[in-house]
Amino acid sequence: MHAAISAEKQEARVAALRAEIESLETEFGRGDDAEAIVKKHIKLLHRYNEAKDATQILIGKLAAQRETTIRQIHEDLELLDD
């Protein structure tokens, strides 16, 4: 048997969900086509990966110049694995 939810709690929950929907629509675009959103995210992921790859190349060159390991450069710059 389910516990009854008071009308006030239910209204508060509905209001919170509506606020969350409003926030997400503002962040991701109101009424945007799902396919367009996916394409935009893929484009952004490509840009991120290109920047990350370029950064790793520079870190590799810095490690070679300093005659140390890439891992040591990561530790020196406080770059985390996650």
UniProtKB/TrEMBL annotation:
One biological-process term from Gene Ontology?
meiotic DNA recombinase assembly involved in reciprocal meiotic recombination
GO CC terms in record:
Swi5-Sfr1 complex; Swi5-Swi2 complex
Which Pfam family is an annotated match for this chain, by its short name? Swi5
Q: According to the UniProt entry, where is the signal peptide? A: none
Q: Which UniProt keywords apply?
A: DNA damage, DNA repair
The source's domain of life comes to: Eukaryota
For this protein, the record's InterPro entries field holds:
DNA-repair_Swi5
According to its UniProt record, which protein family does this protein belong to? Belongs to the SWI5/SAE3 family.
Q: Which PANTHER family match?
A: DNA REPAIR PROTEIN SWI5 HOMOLOG
Q: What is this protein called?
A: DNA repair protein
The species this protein was found in:
Mycena pura
User: Lineage from the top down?
Assistant: Eukaryota, Fungi, Dikarya, Basidiomycota, Agaricomycotina
